[in-house]
Amino acid sequence: MKLVLHVGVHFTEEDRLMKCLLRNADELAAQGTMVPGHGRYRGIMRETLNAMVRAEPSDMARDVLLDAMLDDVEAQRLILSDANFFRTPKTAVQNGVLYPAAAERMLNMSRIFAQDDIEIFMGIRNPATLLPILHSKSGDQSVERFWGGRDPRDIQWSHTIGMIRDAAPEVPITVWCNEDTPLIWGHIIRQMAGLSDDQKIIGGFDLLSSIMSAEGMKRFRAYLKDHPIMTEHQKRRAIAAFLDKYALEGEVEEELDMPGWTEELVSEMSEIYDDDVSEIARMSGVRVLMP
């Protein structure tokens, strides 16, 4: 069985992705892909992973979890999503490391589902915009515990993803930048569901409609109607052009609230983020979805 794990991250579009997949649940089920509601697995999954800190998992752990998720329904592909899979926002950053529990969590998941084909799907975002939010949510905001003596410029996603790869090298990882999500939304959904880019889905422009004016969406849909045959790349170029003109300002701009941070620091961190994404794309077993 193919087990697709969407692991967030926090403060991206994690729940909106799952809602879109659930809107397509009946059509996906007909193809052997199951998208259970999160109430059927998030709690029991967390309990199982937390218990593995103290003891080995039961030989029946996989069967118990699948029974809760599938209720005896056969599946070729199972899609699960939980932004808290690598822990909650309170402990998302410790000692200057993004999601330090991620490697252990994935190691334990690969042990439970050893007979399955696991793949991680993970949306990341610029640490310059994410770290201030995670700092405000942290259970320990002290300099020692949160930053661990590290400079904000040194907190990079390649470190976290590298740890996951070392812990579970057989598990491929698909990554995308949250900043690109409006342009590749439909592509992300289809990749998670194992669909081709030309297959129709419900909600392929859900995210776009939340950040573009009603007038812009009306004109965009009219443009699609007038151009029924377009490649995925052409659609992305059209989306970018319409966003450039009709984006809702309050939805695409972010205000940072981190004492002592300057515009120069944020700009430098953003450049480092771009370089880090390029580094991630070169990692074995990792693919980056780009516009």
Sequence of strands across the biggest β-sheet: 2-3-1-6-7-8
Find the count of extended strands (DSSP E, 2+ residues): 8
CATH architecture field: 3-Layer(aba) Sandwich
| Overall CATH class | Alpha Beta
Structural class: alpha/beta
What distance lies between the first and last C-alpha atoms, to the nearest angstrom? 29 Å
| Unreliable segments of 5+ consecutive residues | none
Return the string of H and E elements. Answer: EHHEHHEEEHEHHHEHHHHHHE
Question: How many domain regions?
Answer: 1
Mean pLDDT comes to 93
Q: What's the quaternary structure here?
A: single chain
Helix content: 40-55%
How large is the count of helical segments? 14
Tell me the major beta sheet.
Answer: 6 strands, parallel
The name of the CATH topology is Rossmann fold
**Rg result:** 20 Å
Describe the protein in words.
- With 291 residues, the chain is of the alpha/beta class.
- The chain has a single domain, classed as Rossmann fold (3-Layer(aba) Sandwich), CATH 3.40.50.
- Helices cover 49% and strands 11% of the residues.
- It has helices spanning 14-23, 25-29, 42-51, 61-70, 102-112, 127-137, 143-147, 157-167, 181-193, 206-211, 214-226, 232-246, 249-252, 263-281; strands at residues 2-6, 33-34, 77-81, 93-94, 97-98, 117-124, 173-177, 286-289.
- The strands form two sheets. It has a six-stranded parallel beta sheet with strand order 2-3-1-6-7-8, with helices on both faces. Strands 4-5 form a two-stranded antiparallel sheet.
- Strand 4 and strand 5 (97-98) form a beta hairpin.
- It is globular.
- The model has no long low-confidence stretch (mean pLDDT 93).
